[in-house]
Amino acid sequence: MEEVTRHFLDANQPLFRLVVALLLGALIGIERGWVAREQQAGERIAGIRTHALVGLLGGIAALLSTTLSARAFPLIFLAVAGIALVAWRARLTERQDYSITGLVGLLLTFCFGAVAVEIGPALATTCAVATALILDNKREIHGLLAKLQAHELDAGLKLLVISAVMLPLLPDQAMGPGGSLNPYEIWWMVVLIASVSFVGYFAIRMGGAEKGILFTGLFAGLSSSTALTLHFARQSRLTPGLSPMLAAGILIACGTMFPRILLYAAVISPGLLPALLVPVALMGATLYLPALWLWRRHRGDGAVQQPGSGQNPLDLRMALFFGALLAVIMLLGEWLRDALGDAGIYLLATTSGIADVDAITLSLTRMSLDAINPDTAVIGIILAAATNNLVKAGLAGAFGTRRTAGRVIMPMLASLTIGLATAWQL
Prior knowledge:
InterPro entries: DUF4010, MgtC_SapB_SrpB_YhiD_N. It comes from Halomonas icarae. By secondary structure, the chain is mostly helical. It folds into 2 domains: about 140 residues, no CATH class; about 280 residues, no CATH class. About 80% of the residues lie in helices and about 0% in strands. The longest helix is centred in the C-terminal third of the chain and has 26 residues.
């Protein structure tokens, strides 16, 4: 029975794929018909029936190209494009609408039918659904474009340059002393850091100041928890009554560093994640819980100006600094590992954590793949994170009020103690 079913499906596969081509055309036609639902019958250039038939025609054209002549598909495509152009040109005499989005959607529908038949229904379906979503969200897309600022567009294009253009050009091979440097992996980590900062910026930008310190601290921690700590500490001197809420914002921003560490480990060295998950999660929870308690207790005290909304979404100088720092740490890690063993790695992690935790985290997760023991990498990452948060607690004490510093330092010390104790036990 199973053999007969398989034979039936194989024999009728072209028919099934033509059905998919028809349905994908109908999907886009439903969206187009909904947009033009107010128009009278015959006023629409292409609705659900036309798009469904064009999708089916694309599938048939693909079959004809493989069975009769390779010229069938391009000739039929040109015929469809010509008919559509004539129809759109005729409509311009009645309506001054110069948008060609509908025309492009119709031609894409034809192509999706061909893709469904000759390449695969899954790819055609994905493309058709994406096209329908784009067509259906015209107002939202134009609204986002209207809100986009020039420096934000520039930042997005720069991110595409460093990720989609420069990254594939770099050699993916070990270089330098002991093969500790890989240009592709170092630049990929630069892209990763820049991407996290970019996402964090737009999370704050889209959320708005009215969401309060809870939202601001959470997402500012993706881009620069140090900058947020300095801003909130200074703010606590200007508005002492808000110091509990500001302390909560600092703790949330610093706690957000720990999910970021887990993200780096999951992407770079998934095998490190099980050993890192428990201590890092506990360290983050030790900061989040008192922060949420402070926020819930004092959230009626007022609002704080949103930090970082005017900053550069993509500071390439900082990303390049991280890349250079990462390369230096990897070289030092190779040397210290040979000279002092695990003790050298711990010393490197502690000193690196004074300035930044991302570079040493990326370095140790990369080294855990082949250069150091995973347990050593876990201890090193936790030492760096604890040191980094203690530095931020010092900044809160130096630039903020005594009450703000007190609310920040105690959870920081508890986070350090719990994280190190858990890591050593595991």
